[in-house]
Fold:
Amino acid sequence: MYVQFRSKERNNAHPLNKNGQFIEPFHNWAEFESCWVEEMKKETLSSTKLIGLLHGIFDFYAAPSIRIPFLLELADGYGDLSGNTFPGDFSYRERGKKEPRREIAQKAWNMLCDNFFKNAPSELKMNNYEFWGEIVKQEVIFKKLLWFFAPEVKNIPYLNPKETRNVAAIEFIKKFAAFVWENSCSNQMFFSARPEIVGVLSEIRSLDLLLGFARNFGIDEMSIGELKEIALDIPCLYKERESLTIENIFLEGRFHQHSEASKILILLEIIRIEQEKKDAREREKAANRNSVERQRAIEEAELAVERAQKHLETIKSSAS
Structure:
């Protein structure tokens, strides 16, 4: 196959080759931050320039404790899921144009989905410890994730199988919840976050994960209380709210999110009863084992006494 190379003259005439300038990416966070701060100082911000800077934010090394919270703060409000708009951007919406601040927030969200959420390992194994144990476990990152995904701020994406970024984010939330629950027995920060995790799981319709968590790691009263609040938080226009119970909310099934919470509460109660029965059987078995062992010890002691008496009689008869 004949390959025709571009001429040197054509290469030299290329817009990116003029003046002999070198083109290099950012090498570290300090270089990126310097450019970002310089842009933010300007009286009129250019969304195009800021989006361009964000595009390469994962192309150089930066401490996760700096990069991830920075992007989470920028991405806050990315999806306009609350129906609000950024201050100063409403005029763009009125004219049917894209809102610059929203575009920047969406770019930050996209970078998180493509380079952070999507890369979350499924299990906490030795080769995955760097992600979960060294990155997510950092207090500044952990608390910022809880802050970002808090249900009341409406940053949790809708589950749409065609939106790969939304899918990646929701899968990350599920893995994040499992990681928190698995480590909450040895980490007070994680244990205290359990009720918040329950609220987030409710938003992504994944409360059923709590059943596995409860069986493997137990469930606390604060998390049960959060579930009850979700189940009973029926819109006030239903006058009979005061008479509603967990059971009839589940049976009526009028409100999916509340019905799901009530169902999980009922199943968790069943799991608790099953566990109590299992524990009672184990205690009974242990008591029976102890009883058998005590009886065996008594019999062995009696045999030992009998042997000792026979031996003593033998000695006496020999002496006489």
